[in-house]
Write a structure and sequence with these properties.
Elements (H helix, E strand, L loop, with lengths): L14 H9 L3 E6 L35 H15 L4 E6 L9 H13 L4 E6 L6 H8 L5 E8 L3 H6 L6 H13 L3 E8 L6 H13 L4 E6 L2 E2 L3 H7 L8 H13 L6 E4 L9 E3 L6 H15 L9
Amino acid sequence: MGFEFSDDNKRYHTLYYHNRHTYGKRVVKAVIDAGFTCPNIDGSKGTGGCFFCDGGSGYFTADSCLSVTEQLKREKERIYRKYPGAMINGYFQAHTNTYAKPDILEKKYREAISAGADTISIATRADCIDREKAELIASLGVPVTIELGLQTIHDETAARLNRCHSFKDFMSAYGLLHSYGIRVCVHIIDGLPGETAEMMTETAVQLGKLRPDAVKIHLLHVIKGTVMHGMYERGEYAPMSKEAYISEVIEQLRYLPPETVIERITGDGDRRTLIAPLWSRDKISVLGGIDKRMAELGIYQGDRFS
């Protein structure tokens, strides 16, 4: 018996499957840097950012000196060369993309829609969501996903990483967004300093109980110039091994509802600045390892969810 939300050998609910069955075609991310900052950088909540943060630019993020329209124009040209006819997902990725006054946010979001974004994704922190912003997002008139950074349910880990917000903050924002019918993709990170396998699994268990629309599972990358880089060089942090990561991701998938879309189970770190773990560069090997292990064990996403 195959997995309910799969047309191939996958035993978890992929984004490819979701897009094909929702829109009938490929949806490709067009990254946007709208020039926002973060409350954990500008001093309103903290300074220096989260210890793993490389400044918020992201590997694929566009040039913030350009307008949203110009960024999308360039991204669409790039995408259509490879995927003619694809739908465009305008992804506000850099920093905290709800960290501004609602009128400024609305201008940026609607500019992306006018420039050809068929759907919108907005990366943000839980402490930068309020009712007025939720109302705005719900009114945009295109499919919107809020990319909500949880990372871990464990506040002691969050404090250790200078996250400057709590699981309670996340729960408040998550509930508010869902009350407006806004799709939420929750981000978690495996391999955070001080976390055991049991703690990582517990994050997935508690997240599963919320029945999230989507989840992205990331591996903690040590990126050049970050606080984590210094910790790694001083021997204060050891990254996860490939085998440990594969095992943990599979365990987490088992506690997430089958209908939850797994939008990512590996990260796309910048090869130019990635310090460790170097095995994470081989994304195909990681994905293949997860597929192989799940098949060998005869398990599926959600088979421990209740």
